[in-house]
Design brief:
Blueprint lengths: L1 E9 L5 H9 L7 E8 L12 E7 L2 H9 L1 H10 L3 E10 L1
Antiparallel strand pairs: 1-3, 1-4, 2-3
Helix pairs in contact: 1-3
Length: about 90
Amino acid sequence: MIRHIVFFSARDRADLPRIEAALNRLAEIPGADRLEVRRNLRSDDLCAEVDLVVYGEFADLAALEAYRAHPIYAEAVQAVRPLRELRMAADVEV
């Protein structure tokens, strides 16, 4: 299984609803065993820069690559990229 974790921060916090809505569309893409978009609780100073987290689980790397190749993924990138400050991603095999 592949865990796909992405952290986002908004350039302007007023845009968070728009960013979150665009990222939530990712759940419409088939192939993820689990996909969630959540707001960061900002529980300590180390994570204060992160506004949103995308967490996904995929059966394998091929499923993750198919997700990234989907047109909805491209639409989400196009909508979010101009509104975000930070994007940091990690894919780990478990």
